[in-house]
Amino acid sequence: MNKTNQERGKKLTEKMILRGGHPTGPCDNGYEGIFSWFVLINLSILGSCGAPRKALDVPFWNNYEPSWSSHHIKYLNGVGGTTAELLLDKSSGAGFQSKKSYLFGHFSMKMKLVGGDSAGVVSAFYLSSNNAEHDEIDFEFLGNRTGEPYILQTNVFTGGKGDREQRIYLWFDPTNDFHSYSVLWNTFQIVIFVDDEYSRIRKTGVEFPFNQPMKIYSSLWNADDWATRGGLEKTDWSKAPFTASYTSFHIDGCEAVTPQEVQVCNTNGMKWWDQKARGVHSIYRFDFDPYR
To answer: Annotated catalytic, 140?
Structure first.
């Protein structure tokens, strides 16, 4: 991504500022009842009210395993596989998943996305209960032509219903280096972080995932029927294989499978994952997308 496009993404972001946040209490974000907003939060000032512990650089095999096309996954930097590379060619993409499922927690991963001409290619990091009426929390990175900015699409499913997509232009080039992407999910809110700063927040309401344990998934696949300019830009297979890299496989959550374990995870504020986040500075909407 060139400097012009980085500035373009930043300006599009700045244009969408709506108003500032003014917390009314020590653990209040000041916006009860407001849904599906992007919020600027700095993890360093969350304090004791829902602050996740610092993400650790955990090897792949500690928490994850391949979920499909294991022959399209490479493990680097030692036996533990501190970095995993997913490959996409015309025959297949690839994916991996957490070994356990969780109800609430902080889930973080560092990613370096497909570089160059990545139109039609989607890299993902998401939580899902993976059933007919599933809950899901999505990061989807939509590839683009060389020099054009990546788009981050987030979505939240409850009871099998999504249609809550919001998109932003990333304000940096996510293909040059690793950047951190994380989800804080508890009974009060879902907060989606990019490099521990910019985020989307969805507060507890009528449609909110609160009782289905979810696994964490990552994948790389071809979606040129919709991903880039609504499917107008197709994947250029002459550039394959496409590679997305993942590292720092941090999980700090409440393991849950049975109904009894689900009850244990809902601690009514006694554990860090079950407390409100604070420190809201500014509130943004990023659902503006000229192509949709």
So the answer is: yes
